[in-house]
């Protein structure tokens, strides 16, 4: 007999698995379909999508290991801790990363069982619609099963974008998947794309000893960040030894006996060859839709391959929603999760919404970069009258004590109402500090609200308060 569910979620990444759990909490019978694109020791699908298997979680494990190595090698001597002959066992580091991934992905398996979510193993594609519901075929190997659901949430995520003449083999020329699995630090690493992945992975392998060259097509560095943050980041990263070349055009990448040779033209029009042992291609990601057979339910993708949705993630087909990387908006795990919760609550008759204006961004470099809200250049372009306050971490005792006092926090507020419009951080623990700013903006707080809130001393959060005070020229420690 055909299995029937109230809600079928396609894809068990952060968008899909969170949507499934919230839908169960709201009383629906829920199935989630996932195939197995990742190496799984037992053949079972590894849940958690890109985020847990080949994205956020493994990458942050490598960030932590490589930062620890760099600290012991270069920074602990300043504390009076002398360690000689520091070495790194990359295989051990990778094993630690794998253990974290396994723990997290099996944790989601546990959550599925706890919440009685039916896991359908295989690849889903639409088969049409009857009066009973939406028909979806699940295919695994040569087996095929049809299920029917009243509502379907598409959460199929994204995959790396490819560029012509640079063929990824995930051995020498790698996307994020291969670049997370190097078994030794390359001597020379090339990276195409100075975006989030390029900077995070480039920094990991630089800390572990690689000479890293990043080739970026755009003439400016980190264009989506506030310009003062991009300037500071560029200065600090170059000082660390990341070679970043802007305004380049990539030609052919050829595998050679020793590695790979990439032809590129620089911003002056001169031709070059970059020889390296490994090359990472990180030029953005594209949505996963090609095998969904969207036409069977009357849907098609837009010109960039995304599934068109409205503000509440409803597609043009009744009862079918799409969330996360497969739809417009930033490709971030927390965005996918929030959209998953929103859709589940919408199906239950609630009136949820996602506030895209207070969604934080983080880049896990050293130091970290994080922001929420508008950049100064956006406010200028909008002709908005705003005030700005800034405080360096170097003025903070806790940052100095930690030996991590690079960077600053900048706050932007409306010149008339004092409402916080944007907060931009480059500095240690920016990923955690930004949460205060996101919360403040969600409550539409004024900079005065943060300035008058007692913050713990000594703590990095005092830098946020000083930035708020600086808006009104009354910083106390500057
Ligand atoms: P995904 O996580 O891609 O999950 C989609 C799932 O659907 C996959 O498991 C896939 O197998 C499955 N699927 C696809 N098609 C089908 C089908 N037809 N049938 C069944 N199943 C299907 N974001 C952050 O917020 N913070 C970070 O620090 C961060 N770091 C990242 C680092 C890297 C290297 C990368 C690549 C990404 C990173 N991201 C980060 C982005 C984040 O991983 C994605 O935004 C997030 O995973 C998107 O979630 P999703 O549920 O939409 O899709
Ligand atoms: P990205 O969009 O961040 O950066 C891609 C970069 O490649 C851009 O700077 C772009 O100008 C450049 N580029 C594009 N085509 C090029 C070409 N032909 N030659 C040279 N440069 C070229 O994409 P990335 O780094 O691949 O990451 C994909 C997504 O994954 C991100 O947009 C982000 O949403 C997510 N992610 C999030 C992280 C986080 O939240 N910390 C970490 C890693 C990824």
Please explain how this structure is put together.
The chain has 478 residues and is α/β, with parallel strands linked by helices. The protein has three domains: 3-159 and 286-354, FAD/NAD(P)-binding domain (3-Layer(bba) Sandwich); 173-283, FAD/NAD(P)-binding domain (3-Layer(bba) Sandwich); 358-471, Enolase-like, domain 1. 31% of the residues lie in helices and 25% in strands. It has helices spanning 14-25, 49-54, 56-75, 90-114, 176-179, 196-207, 227-240, 333-347, 376-382, 397-402, 430-442, 447-451, 461-471; strands at residues 3-10, 30-34, 118-121, 123-129, 134-140, 143-154, 158-160, 173-174, 188-192, 211-215, 243-245, 249-255, 260-265, 271-276, 278-281, 285-287, 320-322, 361-363, 368-373, 386-392, 408-414, 420-427. Strands 1, 2, 3, 4, 5, 6 and 17 form a seven-stranded mixed beta sheet that branches. It has a five-stranded parallel beta sheet with strand order 8-15-9-10-11. A five-stranded antiparallel beta sheet has the order 18-19-22-21-20, with helices on both faces. β18 and β19 (368-373) form a beta hairpin. It starts with a strand and ends in a 7-residue tail after the last helix. The model has no long low-confidence stretch (mean pLDDT 97). The chain binds flavin-adenine dinucleotide and 1,4-dihydronicotinamide adenine dinucleotide (NAI).
């Amino acid at each position: 007999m055909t299995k029937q569910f109230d809600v079928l979620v396609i894809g068990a990444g952060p968008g899909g698995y969170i949507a499934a759990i919230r839908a169960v909490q709201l009383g629906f019978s829920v199935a989630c379909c996932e195939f197995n694109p990742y190496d799984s020791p037992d053949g079972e699908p590894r849940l958690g999508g890109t985020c847990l298997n080949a994205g956020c979680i493994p990458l942050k494990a490598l960030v932590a290991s490589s930062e620890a190595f760099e600290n012991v090698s270069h920074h602990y001597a300043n504390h009076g801790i002398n360690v000689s002959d520091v070495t790194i066992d990359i295989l051990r580091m990778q094993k630690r990363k794998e253990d974290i991934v396994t723990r997290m992905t099996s944790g989601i398996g546990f959550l599925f069982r706890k919440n009685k979510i039916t896991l359908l193993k295989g690849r889903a594609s639409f088969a049409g619609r009857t009066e009973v519901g939406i028909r979806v075929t699940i295919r695994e190997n040569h087996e095929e099963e049809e299920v029917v659901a009243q509502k379907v949430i598409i959460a199929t995520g994204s995959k790396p974008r490819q560029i012509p003449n640079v063929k990824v083999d995930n051995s020498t020329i790698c996307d994020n998947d291969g670049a997370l699995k190097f078994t030794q630090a390359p001597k020379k690493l090339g990276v195409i794309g100075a975006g989030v992945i390029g900077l995070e992975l480039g920094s990991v392998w630089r800390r572990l000893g690689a000479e890293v060259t990043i080739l970026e097509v755009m003439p400016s560095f980190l264009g989506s960040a506030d310009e003062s943050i991009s300037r500071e980041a560029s200065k600090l990263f170059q000082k660390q030894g990341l070679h970043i070349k802007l305004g380049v055009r990539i030609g052919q990448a050829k595998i050679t006996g020793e590695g790979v040779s990439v032809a590129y033209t620089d911003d002056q029009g001169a031709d070059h060859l970059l020889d390296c042992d490994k090359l990472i291609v990180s030029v953005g990601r594209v949505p996963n839709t090609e095998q969904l057979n969207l036409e069977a339910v009357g849907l098609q993708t837009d010109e960039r391959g995304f599934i068109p949705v409205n503000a509440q993630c409803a597609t043009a087909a009744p009862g079918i929603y799409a969330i996360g990387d497969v739809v417009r908006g930033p490709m971030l795990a927390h965005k996918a999760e929030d959209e998953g919760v929103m859709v589940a609550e919408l199906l239950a008759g609630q009136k949820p919404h996602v506030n895209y204006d207070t969604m934080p961004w983080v880049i896990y470099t050293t130091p970290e970069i994080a922001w929420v809200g508008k950049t100064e250049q956006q406010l200028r372009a909008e002709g908005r009258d705003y005030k700005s306050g800034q405080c360096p971490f170097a003025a903070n005792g806790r940052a100095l004590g930690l030996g991590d006092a690079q960077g600053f926090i900048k706050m932007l507020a409306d010149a008339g109402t004092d409402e916080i419009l944007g907060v931009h951080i480059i500095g240690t623990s920016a990923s955690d500090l930004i949460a205060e700013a996101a919360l403040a903006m969600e409550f539409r707080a004024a900079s005065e609200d943060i300035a008058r809130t007692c913050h713990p001393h000594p703590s990095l959060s005092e830098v946020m308060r000083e930035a708020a005070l600086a808006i009104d020229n009354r910083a106390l420690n500057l």
